[in-house]
Amino acid sequence: MSPLTLWHYLLLTVLVLLFVIGILVSMRTNSKFSVFTTISLVLLLIGLFSWKSINERVYLVEVSQLEQERYYQSEQLLIKGLVRNVGEFPVANVVAVVKLSNSSGGSSNRQTLFTQPTVFAEIYEGDNPNFKRQNIVEEHVIAEYLNPGKSKTFRIMMDYPPHFKKASFDVTATAN
Question: pTM value?
């Protein structure tokens, strides 16, 4: 978990104050338990969404200088790049989400959008061992504890599906 910031402490303070006010209000009503439960659940939801929003705005990382190499002997794909902390606060873990897609290559391949498997096919046929998935998503931890303004190189090794004609990939990074 990344270090807490002033915004996190401010959110915790406001939530504790609202919780204390909620307890006082619930003690003055006839249905103490239901008012207390409602106030607690509302504050919990507000806290979870606010915490996630703060983390998305405070811990900022970007990925650049992406390169790929395919190893035919082991049917693997190596993705190399650079991750940089562009925020003002240190980040504990940087998780990269790699989306590998099978893209049709050239004019000799006559597949259209309608002949490729749909999202529904990938959901329902995912358990079928003969089904050839066209999109693969994997998460990898690519950096641990980056100070503001610092960068680090990373390498991700993924299995390359043998049924892919030509792979295209997209890498996005988030801080945890």
Answer: 0.69
